[in-house]
Amino acid sequence: MFRFIALLLLAILGYQQLQAAPPFVYRNNMPLTRIGKYLEIYTDKTNSLDINAVSRQSFSSPGENVPNLQITSYTHWVRFSITNESELKDLLLEVEYPTIDDITLYELLPDSTYKTTRLGEFTSYSNRPVDHQNYIFPLHQPPNTTRQYYLRVIAGEQLQLPIYVGTRDQVSEKNDYRELIFGLYIGVILAMSFYNLFLYISTKDNSYLTYVSYNVFVGLTQATLQGYTFRFLYPDSPWIAQHATVLVPILNGLTALLFIQQFLLTKQYYKPGHRLINILIYLYLGCFIPALMNEFIIAQIWVQMVVGAAAVSVFYVSLRMSLKGYSSARFFLIAWSVFLLSVLVFVLRNANVLPYNEFTYYALQIGSGMEALLLSFALAYKINLFKAEALRASQENEHLVREQNIILEEKVTQRTEELQTSNEELNVALKNLKEAQTQLVEREKMASLGQLTAGIAHEINNPINFVTSNIKPLKLDIQDIRSLLDKYDELPNSPDIQGTLKEIAAYKQQIDIDYIHEEISSLIKGIEDGASRTSEIVRGLRTFSRLDESDVKSVDLHEGIDSTLVLLKNNIPSNVKVIKDYGSLPKIECYAGKINQVFMNILTNAFNAIKTNNQDREEAVTITTREENGLALISIKDTGPGMTEQVKQKIFDPFFTTKDVGEGTGLGLSIVFSIIEKHNGRIEVITAPDKGAEFIIYLPMSVTAQAS
Fold first, then answer.
1. Cβ(103)–Cβ(153) under 8 Å?
2. Which SUPFAM superfamilies is this protein grouped with (predicted)?
3. Domain extent at residue 510
4. What is the pLDDT of residue 449?
5. 145 and 207 assigned to the same domain
């Protein structure tokens, strides 16, 4: 029983395969007809059979009006017959699938030979008998005849065979309608591209430029699938035609993913989605490898898989961002959903789930066009978002600026109060400092005055003592002379004149009148010398102080040095020898009193420094003057203990002193430096420990008006 049933089934199947499909009968006034149900198909998996070998093979009906042969590397043979019962003898056979790589029509002629017409992307576009991107074959078949035809088809991508038979006018009318629809679609794409290009020029936002690129590749993809690019862009380049069906969709996918990242700002708002899209970009880049190696089947399958993964992933990313409240993601989700629906219709049509009709034919173009419009609206809305964000940022900035101004004003007020307080404290400190400075200067003056007074007292004391000591013997001598004169006055009244004269002579001998004369002369000369010495000291004092010369005067510096030494004579240690090496030095214009104070301070320091040696040896202070390079040079060099470099660097600083507390104010050399500076001169110090010190003063011959 089982064997009987099996044999019966085999017989039925064998009958079906042996039974040829009925011919398509074309009659008068028939519309353009799709002849899918009249087709028979045989797949040559060896890719080596010719028309004679294939004609002996068993063909089978595809069972669908538009055969779907999927993506294979095999050679497909299609067999069909046409019976012409119309009055026409010229018909057209159109295969509406322009991406077929190689398609050849074999027409079995009455003499059992075949008329061959080869088209496809492997051949130049100029070989086509009808100027159209679809494969259109003219059929010359007399009325009331039946002809058998074979189509040899090779395709490296998805292959469907929508085959039409009709008149030239019918084919042209259908294609004109399709070109009108495609023209509208390209118009929308171009309009959106230029619109967003202008937005990019205005906003400099790269997402607009990327969107323009994406739009261009979307249009190119559709144009490639419809065969327009081969027809108009590269009609004589079969290589580009073969690769464009893979490369253009890859570039379309890459620009789409880049645009999605920029439009949704996935890197900023949804980093997992950003990384997922990056993976898809790498997968798209990987598609270039088989495409450029001419492995079109692998490249097509790879692209289809990446496209499917990208469609789902992008939908997921946009949905997650939309749920998070990102408004731009909502617009994108709507646009992407519309596009995905069109792709779904396109895929279902290719899978023969949906019929091959006008709607499924234009579904992808409609979805792509609507996506372009919706994304353009979303990009336009993005400008409003930018404006709102800019306004909000501006308001926040203004608010921050106001707050900062308030804080700044408070800090300025607080700082001003602090500065006022500090200023008052500084004024008080400055006042105290000036008072202290005044006291110190007064103290220095008093010290100098005391030193000066001591010197003056010492110098004047000697001649005064000399005068004072001469006055007493002078008085005695004058008393003796007055007694002698009294005796001569009593002589006229004396009764004994001779005796009185003898007494007078004896008195003169007693007082030794000759010695008295000599002594009086000597005493008067001594008084005269004491008065002269006192006058010299007073003159020297006036020379030193120059109290009557407050203005600039032309003075002899040697006189100032000498008067200073006179005043300091009492302070010169006994073991110190003052060596004067005066050179030829003209009078200079200066403030003489201040210059003498310079000499006083430097010489006093030199003598005091020598005193600190506490060594019983001969010391010296050498004073040298000369004219050098138009300047007056005064050198005061002592043989004292000298100074270290650290001390040397500070000796002109106010209040710096190496003396014990209470012995010096530390202002002497500071005053010296100030006076020299006011005379536009300079002072140099050459010193070293145990090498003494030398102060070299350089003064201009004429003080400028800056000195005071």
1. yes
2. ATPase domain of HSP90 chaperone/DNA topoisomerase II/histidine kinase, Homodimeric domain of signal transducing histidine kinase
3. 442-545
4. 64
5. no
